[in-house]
Specification:
Layout lengths: L1 H15 L10 H4 L1 H5 L7 E2 L2 H6 L2 H8 L5 H11 L1 E2 L6 H13 L1 H11 L12 H4 L9 H17 L6 H24 L4 H16 L2 H4 L5 H9 L6 H6 L5 H17 L1 H14 L2 H26 L6 E3 L5 E6 L10 E5 L3 E5 L6 H18 L6 E5 L2 E5 L12 H16 L5 E6 L7 H15 L5 E6 L2 H7 L3 E5 L2 E3 L4 E3 L4 E2 L7 H7 L4 H18 L1
Parallel strand pairs: 3-7, 6-10, 6-11, 8-9, 9-10
Antiparallel strand pairs: 1-2, 4-5, 4-7, 11-14, 12-13
Helix pairs in contact: 1-8, 6-18, 7-18, 10-11, 11-16, 12-14, 12-18, 14-18, 21-22, 23-24
Length: 531
């Protein structure tokens, strides 16, 4: 039976490589490691605002091919931390290549990692990131009662009256034992999984190439081993099943009540775990990093990707046949950013916002996973900020415009930093009137483009193209309007948009003739006044 299970598991793992995962996602648990982690050593921690703009949750579900919950949490954190250098890239690429080409090696690692694919494994990170229960001030009473029980058992053969003492203490101990059950349940998920993590890490560490990730990891594993026996109580609690085991557990439960073993062992284990947080995190990161690299290998196997060239000196960007990975049969485009930023014009649904998101996603995955969705790509090491999806904050009495103002003010502050930044904006200041929108938009976009920052912005305001043509390269998307349809080719074209089709689209959709004529007449008059 075990042999059949392993054979079936191996077949499933082989078949899943290079394919999307078919499972539900609990982002509250997946994010837990990221939310509690210190990000001070990274170039940038990607904000929730930018994640929302780039559809990060959907992107993560597409990118994630991990085999364990530990790897899933590690990969999520990896995608939200832009690193400050490329020091680990060479080794990572070696391992990714080995996973991609050596199916037996890959299967061996996958089999180990799946042991950490239970939901409870999400809680391992709490053991080195969150606070532990503190023993109550009256904890000495538990120690005294435990000592009394031991002494009573030792004296019982010499004095049968000690049986009554033992019985009285047992009754009192039941109260403390039941009180501690809630404390014990707080760690019944995480600590048993820590034992599994230690075993998986120990097995993976035996592999020569994987050992290079952290040559000193064995010291951390051995430190965890020092409290393994004390953690046995959690292992037993998590594996109750079968008649024999129930009988054994019942006898053990009586002994635990008699000597108050659970509270003594629990707080003893927590004290030792508290002093070994760094060692546990090193073991967690070791396993998580391996699984994340396996996930990247699987992603590249199943998709059309490239390894970007990261320019550490300049802010030049170049992409050939770049596409948005979440859009099926996405049209690919070429774009090059040298001394100027990019201003996009075009009608609604023509592809402007999708291209801006594609740029943001590819820069993000290029810097975090060394993987881009393009034929080739060159990117700088850069921070990412965005103002794409903005809405009213009614709970805090903030209008759309005020929310946008706060977002862009933050961008201007970031643009003055020593760090080079990429700013992604869609329809700047569309929550206000035309004159002020164009005036404020021009001033803001000029400010953001300074200090070697790069800006990708879309607009319907043709006036901005004239005001910014010295600072921005102009590109546009256009559509073909026939008698009864509007067709988009989603191809990026140089220069500003010259044709306007909004009124024509109204006509195609059978708006009243009077409305169409008045709209056309007003448009012609406004054009003459502007000239």
């Amino acid at each position: 039976m075990i042999s059949n299970f392993r054979k079936k598991q191996a077949e499933q793992l082989k078949a899943s490589f290079g394919k999307l995962k078919d499972e539900s996602y609990n982002f509250e648990l997946i994010e837990r490691y990221f939310r509690n982690k210190d990000h001070s050593t990274t170039l940038q921690e990607l904000s929730d605002k930018t994640c929302n703009d780039l559809d990060f949750d959907e992107l993560f579900m597409f990118l994630d091919r991990t085999n364990s919950k530990v790897g899933q949490q590690y990969l999520y954190n990896k995608l939200r931390e832009i690193p400050s250098d490329s020091k680990n890239v060479e080794l990572d690429e070696e391992l990714i290549n080995q996973f991609a080409t050596d199916s037996n090696f890959r299967l061996q690692i996958q089999t180990e990692l799946t042991k950490l694919n239970h939901r409870e494994a999400y809680y391992i990170s709490t053991l080195f990131q969150e606070g532990y229960l503190e023993p109550p001030r009256w904890f000495f009473v538990i120690q005294l009662l435990s000592f009394t029980s031991i002494l009573s058992v030792l004296l019982l053969p010499f004095n049968l009256k000690m049986f009554f003492v033992l019985g009285g203490v047992f009754i009192i101990n039941i109260c403390f034992h039941l009180w501690n059950k809630r404390n014990l349940s707080s760690y019944s998920d995480s600590i048993p999984q820590l034992l599994i993590l230690k075993r998986v890490a120990n097995k993976l560490f035996q592999t020569k190439n994987l050992k290079r990730i952290n040559p000193l990891l064995n010291e951390s594993i051995q430190t965890t081993n020092q409290i393994r026996n004390r953690m046995l109580i959690f292992k037993l609690e998590s594996k109750i099943g079968g008649d024999f085991q129930v009988i054994f557990w019942s006898i053990l439960e009586l002994l635990k009540i008699l000597f108050l073993l659970e509270p003594l062992l629990l707080f003893g284990v927590l004290k030792r775990l508290d002093s070994r947080r760094k060692e546990i995190e090193k073991v967690f990161s070791f396993v998580g990093r391996i699984d994340a690299l396996l996930s990247i290998a699987s992603l590249r196997k199943g998709g059309d990707c490239c390894i970007p060239k990261i320019d550490e000196e300049n802010s030049r960007m170049e992409a050939r046949e770049i596409y948005h990975p979440l859009i099926v049969n996405c049209v690919r485009n070429d774009i090059e950013v040298n001394d100027k930023s990019i201003l996009l014009t075009g009608s609604n649904m023509s592809g402007k916002t999708s291209l801006i998101r594609a740029i943001g996603i590819n820069v993000l995955t290029g810097l975090t996973m060394n993987t881009c969705f393009a034929k080739s790509m060159m990117i700088p090491r850069i921070c990412i900020y965005s103002a794409i999806r903005i809405s009213d904050d009614l709970m805090n009495d903030k209008s759309y415009y005020f929310e946008e103002v706060l977002t862009i003010k933050n961008m201007i502050d970031k643009s003055c930093n020593a760090k080079v930044s990429l700013f992604l904006l869609d329809e700047i200041f569309k929550g206000t009137n035309t004159v002020e929108r164009i005036s404020a938009g021009k001033a803001v976009l000029s400010a953001l483009a300074k200090n070697n920052n790069r800006v990708f912005v879309s607009t319907h305001d043709i006036e901005l193209t004239d005001l910014l043509e010295k600072e921005y390269e102009l590109y546009h998307f256009s559509e073909l309007v026939s008698d009864k349809s509007v067709d988009f080719d989603y191809k990026l074209k140089e220069g500003k948009l010259k044709n306007r089709n909004a009124i024509r689209i109204l006509e195609i959709n059978d708006f009243p003739e009077l409305v169409i004529k008045e709209a056309m007449a007003l448009a012609e008059e406004l054009d003459r006044n502007r000239l």
